[in-house]
Amino acid sequence: MADTIRFELVSPERLLMSEDVRQVDVPGAEGDFGVMPQHAPMISTLRAGIMMVRDAEGKEREVFVRGGFAEVRPDLLTVLAEQAIPVEEIDEAVLAQEITNAEEDVADARDDETRQKAEYHLSRLKEVFAALKAAGHS
C-alpha cells in the first residue's frame, strides 16, 4: 500500500500544487473530510475554507479555497477551486483594511446594482477572514 497520494490543486489562475502527499483535509460542502492513499472514490463540492496539505515529509501547508469541487480516486486527489490562495500569501492586516473599505463601499453605494456588487465583494472578503479565524489565525 502506497504511503502517498498524488494531489493536484488547480485554480483558474494557475496550477498551485502537483505533488505526492500523505494527506489532505478538504473543506467539503457537507463537512470537512480527509483524503489519504487508497481513499474510496468520491466527488464533493467545496465550501469556503482552509485546506490542510501534509506533504510526503509530514510538513503542513494551508490553502484557502472557495468554490469548485474535489474528485477523489485511490491514487489521486484533484481539487478544482474557483479561488485558491496559499495562506502564507494572505496579509491579514491588508485583508482587514480591504473589509473596512468594502463596508464603506456598501454604505456609500448610490444604486442597487452598485450596492449588490459591493455586498458581494464584502461577503467574499469575509469568507476569507472567517476561514482564517476558524483555522486559528487572526
Give the neighbour order of strands across the main sheet. Answer: 1-2-5-6-7
Number of strands: 7
Top CATH class of the largest domain: Mainly Beta
Number of domains: 2
| DSSP helix fraction | 25-40%
Tell me the β content: 35-45%
- Poorly predicted residue ranges: none
What distance lies between the first and last C-alpha atoms, to the nearest angstrom?
39 Å
Largest sheet: 5 strands, mixed, barrel
Helical element count?
A: 2
Tell me the overall shape. Answer: elongated
Would you give an account of this structure?
The longest helix is centred in the last third of the chain and has 23 residues, at 112-134. With 138 residues, this protein is of the alpha+beta class. A hairpin with a 2-residue loop joins β2 and β3 (31-35). It folds into 2 domains: 5-88, ATP Synthase, domain 1 (Sandwich); 90-134. It has helices at residues 92-108, 112-134, and strands at 5-10, 15-28, 31-35, 42-45, 49-55, 60-73, 76-86. It has a 5-stranded mixed barrel with strand order 1-2-5-6-7.
Short précis:
This protein has 2 helices and 7 strands. The longest helix is centred in the C-terminal third of the chain and has 23 residues, at 112-134. The protein folds into 2 domains: 5-88, Sandwich (ATP Synthase, domain 1), CATH 2.60.15; 90-134.
